[in-house]
Hints:
The protein contains 12 helices and 8 strands.
Amino acid sequence: VSVQDQITIFEVGARDGLQNEAKPISLEDKKTFVTGLAAAGLRQIELGAFVRPDKVPQMADTDELYRLLQSGEWSLREPLDFWALVPNEKGLERAVEGGVKNIAVFTAATDGFSLKNTGRAVKESLDLYGPLIKKALKSGMRVRGYVSTVFGCPYEGKVDPQKGIQVTKKLLDFGVEQVSLGDTIGVATPKGVDEAVEPLLASFGHEKIAVHFHDTWGAALVNAFRSFELGVRTFDSSAGGLGGCPYAPGATGNLATEDLVYLFEKMGVQTGVNFEKLCQTSLEIHQKMKRAVSSRALQAYAASC
Ligand code: MG
């Protein structure tokens, strides 16, 4: 199988998804959800975030999830990589304590968003991450980077593609193994993908660049496909499309993993994911959360059962 024919899905439902849902879920339900995702074949799974529990209560159980993994009380048969977000030194300490192997740092293409999200301008966040990434790499961790608002910003509007490109280069310079380019408010179009993603692929190759689309305006899958045509092979998505959009209340958030898996598998591109098992896991968590399904592929699957 050539690289042309397979993609890697970076499943963000348990972190990015659940964090942006109003309804909290129990530790047990979260474990069941993640166990189901792994059983469906997902191998890169975002599990939590070492952020302040008072600010982000949905992620307050991250330390406990890692403790359960570390102690073997929660064991998964599948070989997989769990990832956790680390916003600062304090978060890194918690990650080290929890035996975390893979972390993600996050910044943005625009100061407007970065200031609102973390209280730091982009440059300040990069100044903070330089030494933090070094420390994490030294301790043997793998580090991934997220850049939000590459294609549009809720505070600054249209974003010059050069902004996302420069921040991405900086993170790669610091040694992160891959940067995920985020369309935080779901306004990207294939034209914007060409402008922001193509130059980065040309400079760094497909292993260093991932994309993270939101479906707010219904263009996430189109943008994912355009990225694939350009050479992207790593896609972030969320089971069932979990995660709303805090900047457009009521709108859908993340690209749904089911939509991505359905499209690519039908085209003969291997995702490694069992569509049916994934759908069952997603339907289960949607029922527990009493949440309507936003993924089109998941809706069609549910209607066909
Ligand atoms: Mg997202």
